[in-house]
Amino acid sequence: MESLIVERRDGVVTVTMNRPERKNAANGVMLEELPTVFAEVQRNLDDRVMVLTGAGGSFCAGADLNDPDGRARDASLSGLAIMRRLGDVALALHRVTKPTIAKVDGPAVGAGLSLALGCDLIVCSDRARLSMIFARRGLSLDLGASWLLPRMVGMAKAKEMALFGGMWSGEEALAMGLVNRVVPLAELQGFVDDWATTLAAGPPLALSMTKTLLHGSAQSSMEQAVEHEARCQAVNFASLDTAEALAAFVEKREPTYGGR
Q1: How confident is the model at residue 75 (pLDDT cuts 50, 70, 90)?
Q2: pLDDT digits (tens, 9 = 90+) for 170-211
Q3: If DSSP states are collapsed to H, E and C, what string results for the chain?
Q4: pTM over 0.70
Q5: Could you tell me the CA-to-CA distances from 207 to 29, 120, 200, 203 in Å, in that order?
Q6: Over the Cα atoms of the chain, what is R_g?
Q7: Residue 70 banded pLDDT, cuts 50, 70, 90
Q8: Which residues contact 220 (CB under 8 A, 6 or more apart)?
Q9: If exposure means fewest CB atoms within 10 Å of the residue's CB, which of 129, 134, 206, 253 is most exposed?
Q10: Are residues 41 and 47 in contact, defined by beta-carbon separation less than 8 angstroms?
Q11: For the packed helices 204-216 and 222-237, what is the interaxial angle rounded to 10 degrees?
Q12: Burial (0-12, 13-18, 19+ Cβ within 10 Å), 220
């Protein structure tokens, strides 16, 4: 990978956006590499949890609009085709059925914030800065932000964030329900490691189905939701993992899950 660093350890795969000289702004190469990595994580049975982060004290400063090789300058594609390919990045992240954590330090703005919102959990340092800056650049929302943002903060706050393009601190983002935790910078790595390790040791099937149930809830009636729950729970009760969890409970030990 040219723009990403991918590291694996004990079921946790860490994907680091690695253009620190540009605050990890996503150029054309990164926007090609991200969905490739996301799809690989989804396929790899050994990857239990994914952490998405940025190098050099920044998460991601959005799309690199000055990238000479970027999608916005690809003369072989129409504007709509270019943006649909950009949307493929958001969809590839959304299709990862394993738990995902955004570890955010410094700026997460525009498409960078969209990437963070696409993860299941967001942990920020106390110097994080978040913004839906699109309107200030003469742009509308992209990379899934129009779907993600109102589901996280409600429509009124989503409109405020999107129409004004203001900058929010981690604490402000926490107060509005945009992120899960804000911790001192010195504690950020340890906190995310603890969460990722805990999730990686959890039951892969149950966690995956829990995530997909929650994703589908906004499009489901109550009747559909309980039917989906029943199907997922039937799979769990037939799995080796649930048998292991019940045995571990009886034997007063920690379970060891194999994802089957």
Answers
A1: low
A2: 999 999 999 999 999 999 999 999 999 999 999 999 999 999
A3: CCCEEEEEECCEEEEEECCHHHCCCECHHHHHHHHHHHHHHHHCCCCCEEEEEECCCCCECCECCCCCCCHHHCCCCCHHHHHHHHHHHHHHHHCCCCCEEEEECCEEECHHHHHHHCCCEEEEECCCEEECHHHHHCCCCCCCHHHHHHHHHCHHHHHHHHHHCCEEEHHHHHHCCCCCEEECHHHHHHHHHHHHHHHHCCCHHHHHHHHHHHHHHHHCCHHHHHHHHHHHHHHHHCCHHHHHHHHHHHHCCCCCCCCC
A4: yes
A5: 32, 11, 10, 6
A6: 19
A7: low
A8: 228
A9: 253
A10: yes
A11: 170
A12: middle
Assigned token pair, 82:
């270019």
Q: What count of other Cβ atoms lies within 10 Å of the Cβ of residue 210?
A: 18
Instruction: State how far the alpha carbon of 37 is from the alpha carbons of 57, 198, 240, in Å.
Output: 22, 22, 29
Contact 93, 100 (CB under 8 A): yes
Amino acid at 248: A
Query: Which of 253, 259, 229, 223 shows the shortest CA–CA distance to 241?
Result: 259
The token pair that represents 33 in the structure block = 């590499």
